[in-house]
Amino acid sequence: MIKKSVRIFIISALYVNFFISSIPAQEVVCEFTKLPDEIVEAGEFEVQVKYIVPEGWAMMHCEMKDTSHNVLKVFTEKVSGKGEKKFKFIAPGPSEKEELIMAVWLGEDWRNPLAPIQFSDPIPVVHKAKEKSGDVAGQQTEKTVPIEKPSAVQEVIVEKGRKGSIAILKEKFKDADLNFADALGSELRRAGYGATFLNGDQLSEKSILSTDNFFLLVLPHSRVFPASARNSLVAYLRSGGNLLCFEGPPFRDSAWKFTDKERRDGLQGMRWRNSFQNLLRGISFLILRMGLKAGHTVQMEARAQ
Fold this sequence. Notes:
about 300 residues; alpha/beta; Rossmann fold; Immunoglobulin-like; 2 domains; six-stranded mixed β-sheet; globular
């Protein structure tokens, strides 16, 4: 029998009256507005970034990385005000990389960015011959087969409760106790709340993680968070959503999906791998910049066999 007794602080992203001299009043923005769906090996490709720097100037860093987050190429440019920048990269040569990740951020130190670091999903690198043959097949598929989202995203049904609906992240991260997530769901249901379990893919969908569906998001193992869900979490908090974290420190590690190659190399059954580079620190920084205000406090005991 495992017994966990915790005090729950429901945190709402509301402004409070405090001042941080190094942070401008207006929001700093840095995000991709254009990314390729696939990249041809040794070929040129372009990305586009939107930025807002309300005061002074900042250094923008646009990076091409492999799936282990080794930087392969980086462009750095000084920016101020509001605008967009385009960056052209040359993809690695034949058979060097199967997927690439693009990243962009503002500031002097990636561990303390002015806005959350923006990452793309892994972008496949295709062979030139495969890319040519795929043109016709892609056109035929587009005409005959409707584009659909993965079934894991489609099948979400929000559970309603008389006291409101709560989302709980339940994913097989390293060292995550799934029994604890189940126990939290059971206790919340007994208390009159609707509890809906979301996986990492579902959490990444802004249409799912929204204040229309849930007034509270619970992270039972907040030390690890899926990198792909960064933007949806920030949007949820900005719109008035609440966040409850267990087993922190929150956002210490980011989780990335295993690549096709890693699955072929014997990692079947594992969906996520952790990165211990604190790549999600930008989320914690953003929440601090938005301001935290503690709401009501609840005493809960969660028991799991």
